[in-house]
Design brief:
single chain, alpha/beta, 6-stranded mixed beta sheet, 3-stranded antiparallel beta sheet
């Protein structure tokens, strides 16, 4: 029986089992059910094949009071003593009657939801559904636990140019949550920490004053970690029109999240940090679009990057994670791009290039500007759909020097 359990939908089993406990009178909260579901997903099949291990896993996750043990044991025994499992498909669709007239928890068949007398755990199929919203059986009906994709997963493969305003707000909210893990750098400063490796003599002697100058509590020093600066430079030329709005949302999240500098360029460079830091998404994007007067014009990637290096903000690239979002179509000479990118690579901590066309099957960086810049990039990542964004966030959070 337990071997069959190791092959079924664990989330459905967790939902059905906790519902059975609630109907037996055991107070099981949503957080307890969530913990039980995560526990089932974290263990291997060996635990699910051992009834004793499964009992303790379930008991630790769902039982909070000693007085609830009797109810829990009764439900657990009713589930696993009376359950009928077989490799016979006909037996999988059948139900059986256990002792004392109670129905056993066999695997429900495909029409179990339509049978009002069918009870039990949802193993590979759904539990029975209430007859309707106005039915008197709704209060006693078993809830239907239907796994649904998250809202962000539903638009994962939609191209950026096909997203509406509601979906863009959803991406903005998702990016805000995904950037909680900000890259860090080790500062030259040190402070007293418990996990330090160097003895702090001064603080050790201060502590010794309370123990008669006997060194009983040794203080250690360790490094101070600070947020690493991110500089994102976005191409807003005509060839990038389909992706610009989402990139502006990403730049806005970076500007509000931590130490970040954002720039946009087509034929000339425009600093966007102060504009995108506004609270309203629509106002920020609208103001950014108005300030970039050369939006959807030609493309001068190398000239714009060179202007950034020679601007007052050029020093912000030192030790930063430089993110360049562009398709690489440059109207300038490849030699200029190579010279500019070599300077950026020496000044920045790491260089990540986001190319929306890199996710197309058969793509090769053969364009003159992209081919000249590629040797100086640490990562070349696709960024044409929402499905590509998690890899971008992970690359920024786990950036390493080449």
């Amino acid at each position: 029986m337990n071997q069959i359990l190791s092959l079924v939908d664990r989330a459905a089993f967790a939902a059905g089992f906790t519902d059975r406990l609630r109907r037996a009178g055991l107070a099981v909260g949503q957080s307890d059910a969530a913990v039980f579901g995560r526990a089932l997903g974290a263990v291997d099949r060996g635990v699910l094949s051992d009834r004793q291990k499964l009992y303790w896993l379930t008991r630790i996750a769902l039982v909070r009071k000693h007085s609830d043990l009797a109810t829990f044991d009764a439900v657990f025994n009713a589930v696993f003593n009376d359950a009928v499992f077989s490799l016979d498909p006909a037996a999988l669709r059948a139900t059986s009657t256990g002792p004392r007239g109670e129905q056993s928890l066999a695997v429900p068949g495909p029409h179990a939801a339509d049978d009002p007398d069918t009870e039990g755990l949802p193993w590979a199929t759904l539990p029975r559904m209430a007859a309707g919203a106005d039915s008197a059986d709704d209060e006693d009906g078993t809830p239907v636990w239907i796994p649904r994709p998250s809202a962000i997963d539903s638009i994962a493969r939609i191209p950026f140019d096909q997203l509406d305003s509601r979906q863009l707000e959803l991406i903005d909210s998702w990016l805000d949550d995904a950037t909680q893990r900000w890259p860090r750098r080790r500062s030259r400063r040190e402070r007293v920490i418990g996990s330090g490796r160097r003895i702090d003599l001064r603080h050790t002697l201060v502590r010794a004053r309370h123990t008669g100058w006997e060194i009983a509590d040794v203080a250690y020093r360790g490094p101070v970690w600070r947020q690493r600066r991110i500089a994102m430079v976005c191409d807003v030329s005509q060839s990038m029109q389909a992706y610009t709005t989402v990139y502006l949302h990403a730049m806005r999240v970076l500007s509000r999240r931590g130490r970040a500098e954002t720039f946009a360029f087509a034929t000339r460079l425009t600093r966007m940090t102060s504009i995108l830091a506004r609270s309203s998404i629509d106002d920020a994007v609208e103001s950014a679009s108005e300030k970039v007067v050369d939006r959807f014009g030609g493309t001068r990637i190398a000239a714009s990057l060179d202007a950034l290096l020679h601007s007052p903000h050029g020093q912000t690239l030192r030790g930063t994670i430089c993110v360049i979002a562009s398709d690489g179509w440059d109207s300038g000479e490849p030699e200029v791009m190579e010279r500019v990118m070599s300077r950026i690579a020496r000044r920045a901590f790491t260089v990540i290039w986001l190319n929306p066309r890199a996710g197309v099957p058969g793509y090769a960086p053969l364009v003159g500007g992209m081919a000249a810049a590629l040797p100086y990039c640490d990562r070349l990542l696709p960024a044409g759909t929402v499905d590509d964004l998690p890899a971008v966030i992970a690359a920024i959070a786990e950036a390493r020097r080449r």
